[in-house]
Specification:
elongated, mainly alpha, about 280 residues
Amino acid sequence: MFLFYLVGILFYGADSGAGDGGFDALDAFYWISISITTVGYGDMGTTSDKGRAFSIFYVTYGFIIVYSIIGDATTAFFEKISEKIKENQASAAEDEVEIPADDKDIESQMFKKQLFYFSSILALTLGGGVVMSLKEGWTTGKGIYWAWQTMTTVGYGDCMLTRSSRIFGAMYALICVAALASCLSGLTGAKQVASDEYRYRSLMRKELDEALISKLDQNNDGVDRAEFLTGMLVAMGCASERECKGILARFAKLDEDGSGKLTRDDMLGKIKGSDDI
């Protein structure tokens, strides 16, 4: 990332079409950051043909490669905090075979997680808006409006920043655009986790009937453990029937003696055999 910014600062510093005969380091850092986050206020840019041609490839690379690094780091940060402040319903269920009598805990876990992400969005918007309003001498409302249009990458360009605020503006865009995307993903993800848990519990509570047994009994010779597991995984949407059959077929291929169990020799033999090819 350092090298990416260094290349941009050097190029736009020498580009006569950037600003008044070239951006200095601060303006270049600001313009690059606002560009790769796709905020694009329109308050500065380059007017030279070479500058525009370079920007097409440079900003595209920055958006796809460089900014994805920031996005991944931001997502990991929010997920780590989210896991610490909530009780993970998946891990809580690992040691519990019995299904709870009601599903109130699912709603509670979803609410906690969604509240965390919504509160994070609100805090980032209000916090950034208040700081920028103090730096620029704006009203608090205008500062919050600037923060909103920056986080959402709308970038109307009607809240121009003075030079002294550009470092904060660039850093805010780099962090908070990715943070908003992570939080929105977390909000929808919480609902999906709850939906998956509802489906799992519904399936576990379902009584076996003739239709379900017929669906599980693929060979019409009774339902063995593999068939039961495959049917349940497919019904819960955890895996497709093709994937389950592929895994079982691989097991059968490794189990050369047909014992139904893979010994260490079975697996090591296959490794050595592949090395000899």
